[in-house]
């Protein structure tokens, strides 16, 4: 392989169409793609749909919450597959803080003391209808709970606050209703569940109940499981309420790897964890258990846009002009065993062979832990990743060797707060300064509709990869992706897509999966891929093998597709001669972000000086256009060019981090403080405007200007 790369460097990238046959695609970053095309073809012949199904069945045979014995068994399974493919493999332990439910009891009473509900009700569907569910009664299933919730034994009146967004709490205040010392009931959706608690405790609430409303996640959207794919009435969405926008990972070691031998003296004591941990008890409910509470609430009618799909009018409950006869009181008794527990990442590596590139890592990963069985989230991604590794192993046997080092990771405790990936990234911060990409998959397959998110510099890279991979529906993945975006769809996208792209729209990275520490803390260019569909059993008992083979991918052909896309991402980034980053598009998007922020500031009547930042953004965009031309006709030795391309992304980090959350260093992308999942672009600036806080926004404009100028300087130097 090395000698082919050396000969190929004599050809400029512009000559690709002359050097290749008409059937060989033009792929940016290669002078001559013909040899890579052969490796791609050999790789794509290997991932096997049937084997992917076998992986999934094994991985989801038992509930495997992070740190459990069953979780360790999945680590061993993955490690064995990595080793069989020829990867150097380690099971890497970390010691992290996790809460495990001992007792979860929630009761509701009307004004006369009559019991309305006692739960949570077990997740159960009728075993005599539509095949039932063979996994629902496993005694190892933990009670439905929220990760990072403290213990609590509280009783209080209830207030309904819609989705629990900042705007919802603000509207309630305008209506004259206080949540102080109340238990708020909110529905899933619109923001990350932890942000609901984050805001509720700021408003003085005593506790939080989060339920899935059928309008968003149940019968209103279609037939319920097991007849259809949507959430049945007893199903509960579990999930962590760790305050991810403050920092992810082990709560006791922000910025430090929580290795198994880390002394307790270097950890934040549990009684001092006030930054990213909830101070009020929070627990999820099914809509079966939420319905009696909501139905009995009196007080004012909720704003009509707050109405869900349960068959009664929603009221706000306590506060305002309500009478004693309209109140509902809830007793929450949560006992959590909060302790340091061992989790296990599995890391497999293939060494690079190019002396100039071998230390520039290509990292790819998927998490393995699940709230219960996790067939879709995350083990559909794990099954696909194992078939990717299967394909890489076959290439190794055929004599292929990558130029750059490949690192494949099976993360643990992602569900608890991106813990396994964050601790590993913090431990390897020094070598990751040279990593050229992180490729993520999480919900690998929930249905047939491909979707992706990426930093702007890798959007075209993802498009080109998907143009090579065949779709089970005919044509390429790219063809079907484009057709799907053009057609009306009732499925919800995980990643809102930017409208500045002229081709297939690719989403923006927010948070909620394992790319977060790589792009937003360390500045490693990242992508996230998945294949979506009507997925109504997220984080419930029913996200299991039975649901998967009925509604997601019965023949596992989309598992095979995802293994191929994931594998080509890895192969191309490991062997491309010139890093295929698109700073031209990056610059265009940043200019657009600043122009939008300037308009927002005007609507908020904030006087801010955008001129230096806009000048820097246009300079960065111009440098991106210039280096794009250099990438198309690179020097014979592109090492310095590649170093500049990589350094330009890292230069967009602000060492001081964002205000109030310094762990997040990226000046262009971060999860929003009050959104959690969704990205906020140029976050320091936009959140300063939203506050509104003119001095903070102006300070963040200055930090952004410095970052853009740093990055532009690096790109400009590489074009001289």
Fold topology:
Blueprint: H1 2-8, H2 16-19, H3 34-44, H4 49-59, H5 69-84, E1 88-109, E2 115-119, E3 146-147, E4 152-160, H6 166-174, E5 183-187, H7 193-202, E6 207-211, H8 214-217, E7 239-240, E8 282-285, H9 287-296, E9 329-350, E10 362-367, H10 375-397, E11 406-411, H11 419-427, H12 429-432, E12 437-445, E13 449-454, H13 459-466, H14 477-486, H15 516-521, E14 526-532, H16 545-552, H17 557-575, H18 583-603, H19 611-632, H20 639-650, E15 669-671, E16 679-681, H21 683-690, H22 694-718
Parallel strand pairs: 3-7, 4-5, 5-6, 6-8, 10-11, 10-12, 12-14
Antiparallel strand pairs: 1-2, 1-9, 4-9, 9-11, 13-14, 15-16
Number of helices: 22
CATH architecture designation of the largest domain: 3-Layer(aba) Sandwich
Low-confidence stretches: 1-22
Cα-to-Cα separation, first versus last residue: 30 Å
The domain count comes to 3
The fraction of residues in strands falls at 15-25%
Integer-rounded radius of gyration: 25 Å
Which percent range fits the helix content? 25-40%
Count the E strands: 16
- CATH homology group of the largest domain: Zn peptidases
Keywords:
single chain, 720 residues, alpha/beta, Aminopeptidase, Glucose Oxidase, domain 1, Transcription Elongation Factor S-II, Chain A, twelve-stranded mixed sheet, 36% helix
């Amino acid at each position: 392989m090395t000698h082919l790369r050396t000969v190929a460097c004599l050809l400029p990238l512009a000559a690709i169409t002359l050097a290749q046959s008409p059937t060989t695609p033009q792929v940016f970053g290669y002078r001559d793609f013909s040899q890579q095309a052969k490796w791609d073809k050999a790789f794509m012949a290997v991932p096997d749909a049937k084997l992917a199904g076998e992986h999934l069945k094994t991985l989801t045979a038992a509930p495997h919450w992070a740190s459990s014995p069953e979780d360790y068994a999945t680590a061993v399974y993955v490690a064995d597959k990595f080793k069989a493919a020829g990867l150097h493999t380690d099971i890497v332990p970390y010691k992290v803080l996790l809460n495990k439910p001992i007792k979860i009891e929630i009761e509701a009473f009307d004004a006369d003391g009559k019991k309305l509900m006692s739960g949570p009700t077990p997740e159960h569907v009728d075993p005599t209808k539509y095949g039932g569910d063979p996994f629902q009664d496993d005694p190892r299933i933990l009670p439905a709970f929220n990760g990072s919730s403290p213990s609590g034994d509280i009783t209080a009146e209830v207030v309904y606050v819609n989705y629990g967004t900042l705007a919802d709490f603000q509207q309630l205040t305008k209506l004259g209703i206080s949540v102080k010392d109340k238990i708020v009931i909110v529905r899933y959706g619109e923001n990350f569940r932890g942000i609901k608690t984050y805001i509720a405790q700021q408003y003085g609430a005593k506790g939080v109940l989060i339920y899935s409303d059928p309008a968003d996640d149940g019968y209103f959207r279609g037939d319920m499981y097991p007849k259809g794919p949507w959430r049945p009435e007893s199903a509960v969405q579990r999930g962590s309420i760790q305050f991810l926008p403050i920092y992810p990972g082990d709560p006791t070691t922000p910025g430090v790897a929580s290795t198994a031998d880390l002394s307790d003296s270097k950890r934040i004591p549990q009684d001092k964890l006030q930054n990213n941990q909830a101070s009020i008890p929070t627990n999820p409910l099914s809509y079966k258990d939420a319905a009696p509470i909501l139905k009995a609430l009196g007080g004012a009618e909720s704003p009509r846009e707050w109405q869900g799909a349960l068959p009664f009018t929603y009221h706000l409950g306590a506060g305002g002009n309500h009478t004693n006869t309209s109140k509902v009181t809830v007793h929450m008794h949560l006992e959590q065993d909060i302790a340091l527990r061992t989790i296990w990442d599995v890391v497999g590596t293939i060494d690079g062979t190019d002396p100039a590139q071998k230390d520039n890592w290509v990292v790819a990963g998927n998490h393995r832990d699940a709230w219960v069985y996790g067939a879709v989230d995350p083990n559909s991604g794990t099954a696909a990743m194992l078939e990717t590794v299967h394909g890489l192993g076959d290439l190794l046997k055929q004599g292929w060797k990558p130029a750059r080092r490949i690192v494949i990771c099976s993360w643990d405790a992602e569900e608890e707060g991106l813990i396994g990936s964050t601790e590993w990234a913090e431990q390897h911060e020094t070598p990751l300064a040279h990593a050229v990409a992180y490729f993520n998959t999480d919900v690998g397959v929930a249905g047939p509709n491909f979707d992706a998110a990426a930093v702007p510099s890798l959007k075209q890279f993802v498009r080109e990869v998907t143009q090579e991979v065949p779709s089970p529906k005919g044509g390429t993945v790219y063809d079907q992706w484009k057709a799907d975006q053009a057609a009306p769809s009732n499925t919800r996208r995980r990643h809102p897509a930017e409208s500045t792209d002229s081709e297939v729209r690719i989403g923006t990275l927010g948070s909620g999966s394992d790319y977060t520490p790589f792009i937003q803390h360390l500045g490693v260019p990242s992508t996230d891929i998945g294949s979506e569909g009507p997925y109504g059993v997220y984080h419930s008992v029913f996200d299991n093998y039975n649901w998967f083979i009925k509604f997601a991918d019965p023949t596992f052909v989309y598992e095979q597709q995802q293994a191929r896309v994931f594998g080509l991402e890895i192969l191309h980034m490991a062997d491309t001669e010139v890093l295929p980053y698109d700073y031209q598009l990056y610059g265009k998007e940043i200019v657009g972000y600043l122009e939008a922020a300037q308009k927002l500031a005007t609507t908020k009547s904030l006087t801010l000086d955008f001129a230096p930042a806009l000048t820097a953004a246009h300079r960065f965009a111009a440098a991106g256009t210039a280096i794009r031309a250099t990438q198309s006709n690179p020097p014979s030795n592109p090492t310095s060019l590649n170093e500049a391309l990589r350094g330009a992304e890292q230069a967009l980090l602000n060492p001081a981090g964002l205000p109030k959350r310094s762990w997040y260093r990226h000046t262009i992308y971060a999860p929003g403080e009050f959104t959690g999942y969704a990205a906020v672009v140029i976050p320091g600036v936009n959140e300063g405007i939203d506050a509104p806080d003119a001095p903070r926004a102006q300070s963040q404009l200055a930090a952004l200007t410095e970052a853009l100028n740093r990055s532009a300087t690096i790109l400009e130097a590489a074009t001289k």
